């Protein structure tokens, strides 16, 4: 597994930057789907690429990628596991759908 520092040293693409900016705007206690993020950045069919970009998130404190969930409301993937993602969401007052 890469460390936080290793993620921050790589070059961020313009697509990734748009994804990260959209994710930063999600308020605490709310979620958005990968598809909603893709639509918000003008790339409605790029929802899988949004997930890939979030998997490369260089700063988990500034870019709350745990707030992005699947279209069916389930938590979806997370670098530190779905249990931790669910715990973070519940701690913020968001209620993800059970798997």
UniProtKB/TrEMBL annotation:
<keyword id="KW-0808">Transferase</keyword>
<dbReference type="InterPro" id="IPR036217">
    <property type="entry name" value="MethylDNA_cys_MeTrfase_DNAb"/>
</dbReference>
<keyword id="KW-0227">DNA damage</keyword>
<dbReference type="InterPro" id="IPR001497">
    <property type="entry name" value="MethylDNA_cys_MeTrfase_AS"/>
</dbReference>
<dbReference type="GO" id="GO:0032259">
    <property type="term" value="P:methylation"/>
</dbReference>
<dbReference type="InterPro" id="IPR014048">
    <property type="entry name" value="MethylDNA_cys_MeTrfase_DNA-bd"/>
</dbReference>
<comment type="similarity">
    <text>Belongs to the MGMT family.</text>
</comment>
<feature type="domain" description="Methylated-DNA-[protein]-cysteine S-methyltransferase DNA binding">
    <location>
        <begin position="15"/>
        <end position="93"/>
    </location>
</feature>
<keyword id="KW-0234">DNA repair</keyword>
<keyword id="KW-0489">Methyltransferase</keyword>
<dbReference type="InterPro" id="IPR036388">
    <property type="entry name" value="WH-like_DNA-bd_sf"/>
</dbReference>
<dbReference type="GO" id="GO:0006281">
    <property type="term" value="P:DNA repair"/>
</dbReference>
<dbReference type="Pfam" id="PF01035">
    <property type="entry name" value="DNA_binding_1"/>
</dbReference>
<protein>
    <recommendedName>
        <fullName>methylated-DNA--[protein]-cysteine S-methyltransferase</fullName>
        <ecNumber>2.1.1.63</ecNumber>
    </recommendedName>
</protein>
<dbReference type="GO" id="GO:0003908">
    <property type="term" value="F:methylated-DNA-[protein]-cysteine S-methyltransferase activity"/>
</dbReference>
